[in-house]
Design a protein that fits this description.
The chain is an alpha+beta fold. Helices cover about 20% and strands about 30% of the residues. It folds into 5 domains: about 5-95, Sandwich (Immunoglobulin-like); about 100-280, Jelly Rolls, CATH 2.60.120; about 290-405, Jelly Rolls; about 415-760, Glycosyltransferase, CATH 1.50.10.10; about 775-835, Sandwich (Maltose phosphorylase, domain 3), CATH 2.60.420.10. The chain has 15 helices and 45 strands. Strand 43 (about 815-820) and strand 44 (about 830) form a beta hairpin. It is globular, with a radius of gyration of 27 Å. Bound molecules: alpha-L-rhamnopyranose. Alpha-L-rhamnopyranose (RAM) binds next to helix 3. InterPro entries: 6-hairpin_glycosidase_sf (IPR008928), 6hp_glycosidase-like_sf (IPR012341), Alpha_rhamnosid (IPR016007), Bac_rhamnosid6H (IPR035396), Bac_rhamnosid_C (IPR035398), Bac_rhamnosid_N (IPR013737), Ig-like_fold (IPR013783), Rhamnosid_concanavalin (IPR008902).
Length: about 850
């Protein structure tokens, strides 16, 4: 292939319905080329860059005529490289959605339901198309979650649309190519709407009706006929609604379906005026059913109960294809763990919050009544469960693995990172972290897929960097950051979770729990990690107002330089450190954590300001970082290098954030080693510093101790989780205790950030310049490993690293440079191609 390839628009594989008028275009260099010297882009609407000198091949802005609504722009690119002038690439394209409120002729409609029930509603209208269709698009969204059917066919394969955003100000519209589905003549368009996040249970307290007490839908069909005429149709006053087989559907509680039910009487809809101002596109790929799992076992722990075991913990649902005779009522209870009796237990998943009178139900219970029709199946696509096991009650027949599939559901991100080594236990640990990411990327990055399912800022703050190695999370994270910004209070407070349900936000009884250091800092740290991984400057510019508002608040709260006011989660969940008395926990001083984060985030803001060419801001944030670091040192660092508090976390954080003067770093690192030894060579860190524990040890010359910790078994340790059967990472080090009893969530990625050590230290791949344009390959061998390898599909192409008895194998993608350090040898600069050094 002598042409550029892998064309992309923004961070999307399919840029249909975008609202960006100047989308950024990326390509990969022709095979065999090492360096680009110039490029030329041409578009179908007559724009040409001419020959542009330089190496830019990522996120080059389209600067042609601003496209109008529903406009498709084809583009192609050719490059000049060390091989000479290339051919034109195969064409790429992007297509805008409905860009202006005035493009909408469709009206918002609601089912006029006064029963107080929460079924999935069917909303139906007739559309008429006279003449042969050249191109047809459907633009759709809902209050609730929806899917569309045109004629008898499902539109698209996205699930849980329109996705979860801060609906108050941002509601995503999906665009679908329905050219193949629209027929000349009359047809029916049906929108099925269920509660979803909009009206169903959300957040830590599982409040309902957070954005409204009614569901609604908005859909507009735009058909271009063969002659060029455009026909538009959509939801409106002539539509009707009914209920169907889905009697109730809640993302957390579960779904109840009666397959015998015929649609109720069709009644007229109500037209509502929600306007079109909040409608946005999604920079992320949609949620899909991405994989199916064949169960590994079906057991019968008690009469009438069958337990299906998927063999691993996932997010999604099951598809059951044997439902029994008509009238059979099946109850499916999903869980992550089995009790001593071999039956599913969900006790550990019941939210037990200090201000609730009693723990809430765990939810995740589906119910289906069979109609006895041949070929019928149950697949509850309007709920999600975090589960490995399903208890089926009420089935008259024995079930086998052939009757069930586990359906894995998450944002359909591209996989970009892999790791393997000679120790299968580490490979299992890596796999568990990957599955925790997959289990918690359901349109938003969640803390866990079963209990709160909330976009906790702290959790993505600690994991985003590792996630960005494993999957392309650029669009997914950009989308979430827009909600973080939308949720920000006028005083700069960043909400605990985004999208933030009103029940947990500024006007809620728990308002004071928002704005914690380490959590709110996600607004600075996460964009920075995106920039490093993908080279995206626009996301930095877009989030700049939000990050500076956050820093301004912290600066105000840290009047003396020390951030010793406000509520903070602190290090959170150190072994044995769960808050017993929440009031005492909330009142406890966490200024060591908060001040360290202020220094760190202000330091990142300095670097971000430089990227954005804002020298005055860079100077300002550099001074702020310096003041916070000084205040931290005055309060927590003794002249001899002793720290208060004398915890692993404090040592890790201060080393990782560069708070320790160079002369004292060896002493602080040595004390960290002592603390690790005193803890029986085990981690004693919580949420915030676990990811940095092994890296700071390795950076300080204690890679041997880092490896010992990594390979430690028993509790607490990472491999201890694997030994006790974890297939995803646990929220607590004792997620399953020595007696086999489960505690809290068994699917929280936060502690899984340790696999970043596998990528960046064991395999040794780390970006030096954004998007891995220049990257380091510096494996730190140890732990008795005979070999290790990793690959990362970087924006420029695939990086591969392997070390073994032969040496260090490195594959450097076109357009990039590696600084590779072979065992014992000095670093060498490597250009594109394969190397063995
Ligand atoms: C828990 C969540 C989350 C964490 C917060 C502070 O309830 O599961 O992981 O960020 O607390």
């Amino acid at each position: 292939m002598s042409a550029p390839h892998g064309l992309r628009v923004e961070h999307l594989d399919e840029a249909l319905g975008i609202h960006v008028r100047s989308p950024r275009l990326s390509w990969r260099l022709p095979a065999g080329a090492a360096r680009q010297v110039a490029y030329r882009i041409e578009t179908g609407n007559g724009w040409s860059t001419g020959r542009v000198e330089g190496e830019h091949s990522l996120l080059v802005p389209y600067e042609g005529p601003p496209p109008g609504s529903a406009e498709r722009v084809d583009w192609r690119v050719k490059v000049w490289t060390d091989l000479g002038e290339s051919d034109w690439s195969a064409p790429g394209w992007f297509e805008t959605g409905l860009l202006s409120p005035s493009d909408w002729v469709a009206r918002w409609i609601e089912p006029d339901d006064t029963t107080g029930e929460r079924p999935a509603y069917l909303l139906r209208g007739e559309i008429r198309v006279d003449g042969p269709v050249e191109r047809a698009r459907l633009y759709a969204t809902a209050h609730g979650i929806y899917e569309a059917w045109l004629g008898g066919a499902r539109v698209g394969d996205a699930e849980l649309t329109p996705g979860f955003t801060q609906y108050r100000t941002r509601l995503q519209v999906q665009a679908y190519d329905v050219t193949e589905l629209v027929r000349a003549g009359a047809d029916e368009l049906t929108i099925v709407v269920a509660d979803g996040w909009y009206r169903g249970q959300v957040g830590a307290v599982r409040a309902v009706d957070q954005w409204g007490a009614r569901v609604a839908a908005l859909a507009q069909l735009r058909v271009t006929l063969a002659g060029g005429a455009v026909v538009t149709a959509g939801t409106g006053p002539d539509w009707r609604w009914a209920t169907g087989p889905v009697r109730a559907a809640d993302l957390i509680a579960g779904e109840r379906v009666d397959l015998r039910a015929e649609p109720s009487v069709w009644a007229p809809v109500v037209v509502a005026d929600f306007g079109y101002d909040t409608l946005v596109d999604s920079p992320a790929p949609p949620v899909r059913r991405v994989e199916e799992i064949v169960p590994v076992a079906v057991t019968r722990p008690a009469p009438g109960r069958q337990v299906i075991d998927l063999g691993r913990n996932v997010n999604g649902w099951v598809r059951l294809t044997r439902l029994g005779p008509a009238g059979t009522r099946l109850t499916l209870t999903h869980g992550e763990h089995l009790g001593a009796d071999g039956d599913v237990t969900t006790d550990h998943l019941r939210p037990d919050l200090p201000f609730l009178p009693e723990p809430l139900p765990a939810g995740m219970v589906d119910e289906v009544v069979a109609a006895g029709r041949p070929g019928e199946a149950f697949e509850p696509r309007r709920t999600t469960h975090g589960f490995r096991y399903v208890r089926v009650e009420g089935h008259p027949e024995p079930l086998g693995p052939q009757d069930v599939r586990g359906v894995v559901v998450h944002t359909d991100m591209r996989r970009t990172g892999w790791f393997a080594c000679s120790d299968p236990r580490l490979n299992a640990l890596h796999e568990a972290a990957v599955w925790s990411l997959r289990g918690n990327a359901c349109d938003i990055p969640t803390d866990c897929p079963q209990r709160e399912r909330a976009g906790w800022t702290g959790d993505w703050q600690v994991f985003a960097r590792t996630a960005a190695f494993l999957y392309d999370v650029a669009g997914f994270t950009t989308k979430w950051l827009r909600d973080v910004a939308a949720d920000q209070w006028p005083d700069g407070t960043v909400a605990n979770m985004s999208p933030c349900p009103p029940a947990e936000g500024r006007d809620s009884p728990v308002a004071a729990l928002n704005g914690s250091a380490g959590w709110g800092d996600a607004v600075v740290i996460v964009p920075w990690q995106l920039y490093r991984a993908y080279g995206d400057e626009r996301v930095l510019a877009e989030l700049w107002p939000a990050m500076t508002a956050w820093l301004a608040r912290a600066e105000r709260m840290a009047r003396t330089g020390l951030w010793n006011t406000g509520f903070h989660w602190g290090e959170w969940l150190e072994p044995g450190g769960e808050p017993v008395d929440f009031a005492a926990f909330a009142a406890a001083d966490k200024s060591d954590v908060a001040t360290a984060y202020l220094a760190h985030s202000a330091g990142l803001a300095t670097r971000i300001a430089r990227v954005l060419r804002r020298p005055a801001d860079a100077a300002r944030y550099s001074a702020l970082a310096g003041r916070a670091a000084d205040a931290w040192r005055r309060e927590f660092l003794q002249p001899d290098g002793r720290l208060t508090p004398d915890t692993q976390a404090n040592h890790v954080r201060s080393l990782a954030f560069g708070l320790i003067p160079a002369a004292l770093r060896p002493a602080v690192a040595a004390r960290l080693v002592e603390l690790v030894r005193a803890a029986d060579t085990r981690p004693a860190t919580g949420f915030l510093s676990t990811a940095d524990l092994l890296p700071v040890l390795a950076d300080a010359g204690h890679a041997d101790v880092a490896y010992e910790l990594l390979l430690r078994t028993g509790e607490p340790s990472w491999l201890g989780m694997i030994e006790r059967g974890a297939t995803t990472m646990w929220e607590r080090w004792d997620g399953v205790d020595a007696d086999g009893v489960a505690h809290d969530s068994l699917n929280h990625y936060a502690r899984g950030a340790v696999v970043g050590f596998l990528h960046r230290y064991v395999a040794g791949i780390e970006p030096v310049e954004p998007a891995y344009r220049r990257f380091r390959v510096r494996p730190r061998r140890g732990g008795g490993l005979a070999w290790a390898e990793a690959a990362h599909e970087s924006p420029y192409g695939r990086i591969e690293v392997r070390w073994d008895s032969e040496g260090l194998h490195v594959t450097v993608p076109p357009g990039t440079t590696a600084e590779a350090t072979p065992p014992g040898g000095p670093a060498r600069v490597l250009g594109p191609g394969r190397h063995l050094i």
